[in-house]
Recover the amino acids of this structure.
């Protein structure tokens, strides 16, 4: 059933999320700190037993130079630098195994699949540990270190994601001027964060994105993972203002305001996990060219395979359009 605003109201909805004065300075300092460390630290081909796709185990320096794992998958026999899809994962999911997630390489693209630090217990396994000072939190990651922006879990994860794009762009197999980012749920929220932090992306695909419009999400849904915030604040009652201040530095709405790349965002109108108003909050704030596709009778699965088909179409068109335009990134490779 519909659990949120009617669709006409969704299209007009604007989040109440604050925009911190030092938001940009905070993220410049954070990313610059990561850039003080080596970027790509290892690329090793693995025998995945496949005949049409080559798989490489990539390690790169993420937040504070910490080693982050990724898979690079390439269509076997492809010529020249390829357009690349950098993928981020949903809550609880890691990069999985070498033989998983073959869609993008099968479509002819370089596929750079980032592991999710500390996650990997739901659906696909992970190998990258999380660091950082931990304090009392609800089970999960949404309140890990939430007492301050400097210690918050998503500071580390979003920085990893920015560095993943930078690492992909250094690889010989990748056309640095044609790099798109894509994610579902948490991965969609990460993609929006990257869109606000990384210039010159070919396209952004954020499917039923999580991590958007914390002020509303924390009070309109009783489902995890947003429920972690409510549970935390029900216990640490005196921290409400402090927690929401931290979250304002990590909200997809504030990253969307700074994004310039073309974006395709999807929302499901019966989604109790990422309510459609929270998705529309990011979409309506998005500063670059954008389109949204809604699935009226779906929940958090969104469009499923139809979202895959939609993503294939929009990225094919985006990469073709980008290829027709001379780029300093490409000429500098």
């Amino acid at each position: 059933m519909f659990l949120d605003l009617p669709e006409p109201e969704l299209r007009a909805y604007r989040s109440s999320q604050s925009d911190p004065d030092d938001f940009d300075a905070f993220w410049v300092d954070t990313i610059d700190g990561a850039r003080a460390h080596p970027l790509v630290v290892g690329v090793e081909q693995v025998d995945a037993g496949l005949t049409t796709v080559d798989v490489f185990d990539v390690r790169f320096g993420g937040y504070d130079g910490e080693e982050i794992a990724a898979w690079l998958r390439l269509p076997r026999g492809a010529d020249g630098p390829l357009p690349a899809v950098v993928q981020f994962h949903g809550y609880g999911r890691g990069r999985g195994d070498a033989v998983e997630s073959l869609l993008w390489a099968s479509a002819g693209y370089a596929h750079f699949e980032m592991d999710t630090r500390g996650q990997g217990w739901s659906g696909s396994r992970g190998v990258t540990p999380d660091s950082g000072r931990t304090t009392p939190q609800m089970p999960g990651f949404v309140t890990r270190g939430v007492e301050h922006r400097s210690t918050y879990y998503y500071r580390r994860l979003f920085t990893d994601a920015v560095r993943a794009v930078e690492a992909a762009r250094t690889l010989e197999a990748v056309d640095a001027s044609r790099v798109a980012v894509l994610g579902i749920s948490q991965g969609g929220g990460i993609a929006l964060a990257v869109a606000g932090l990384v210039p010159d992306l070919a396209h952004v695909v954020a499917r039923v994105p999580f991590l958007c419009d914390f002020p509303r999400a924390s009070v309109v849904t009783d489902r995890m993972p947003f429920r972690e915030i409510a549970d935390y604040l029900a216990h640490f009652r005196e921290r409400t203002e402090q927690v929401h201040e931290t979250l304002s530095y990590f909200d997809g709405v504030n990253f969307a305001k700074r994004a310039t790349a073309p974006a395709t965002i999807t929302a499901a109108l019966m989604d109790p996990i990422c309510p459609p108003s929270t998705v529309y909050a990011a979409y309506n704030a998005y500063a670059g060219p954008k389109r949204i596709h809604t699935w009226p009778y779906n929940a958090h699965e969104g469009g499923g395979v139809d979202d895959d088909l939609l993503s294939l179409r929009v990225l094919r068109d985006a990469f073709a359009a980008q290829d027709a335009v001379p780029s300093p990134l490409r000429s500098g490779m």
About this structure: Residues 327-333 have pLDDT under 50 and may be disordered. The radius of gyration is 19 Å. The longest strand covers residues 174-184. The chain has twelve helices and nine strands.
